[in-house]
Amino acid sequence: MNAARNTDGEPDSAPPPVILVVEDEVLVRSIVAAYLRECGFDVIEASSADEAIRVLQAEVRVDIVFSDVNMPGSMDGFGLAQWVRRERPWLRVILTSGAARTAKAAGDLCESGPVLAKPYDHAELERHIRNLLAR
Question: The Response regulatory domain covers which part of the protein (predicted)?
């Protein structure tokens, strides 16, 4: 990976933010992960909440968890957000779903507000992530 450069052309000393993308649909996950990498983020991919929790328990640096709500496995995105809130309260979570009824529940779990509705605009997701990182 190429090192990020500051305005003087010198390498930045700060590592890029790390986004954990949790999505069971491989094509959706790979497309959003590739886009976020192009935006300068490091991306870790997980196909389920269980896999995401294993990543987080491995003490890998993660700045934001971006997760689908509806996933197979022992828990969905809401369960993952609840786990993160309990076990890693400093970590920000963004949820996404195609179901409109999930927006209120997501708003209760995510300090960044309601869930991003699928299909979401990638540029909107990037803005959302950058706003969370700026807080």
Answer: 18-133
